[in-house]
Amino acid sequence: MSTSQETKVITSVVIDNISERYSDVWGGFLQSGERAYDVDIDDGSLGTIMSRVIGPAYETAWRGFRQALDDGSIAAHGISEALSTCAANWRAAEQASIVEYR
Question: Is the pTM of this model over 0.90?
Fold first, then answer.
């Protein structure tokens, strides 16, 4: 449990690690999206009558699923890129704040 007295340190390394996790999530969304294209219900799968009954609902659900995957992929990729930029800025700030004594 966190208390208000704890000191938390954030470094560019921490931000890079978080960015890598979001990059992994993005990759997972892409893989799931590729697998979703392999699933199809046609007349041969359920028979003509059941395909006519279930087909429209399946298509609607499938489109919603694909849209959610696409949205999640875009979000995860954007977060990963933003965190990478943040880490680069953080490194620059760390370098700029170094004080050298001579």
Answer: no
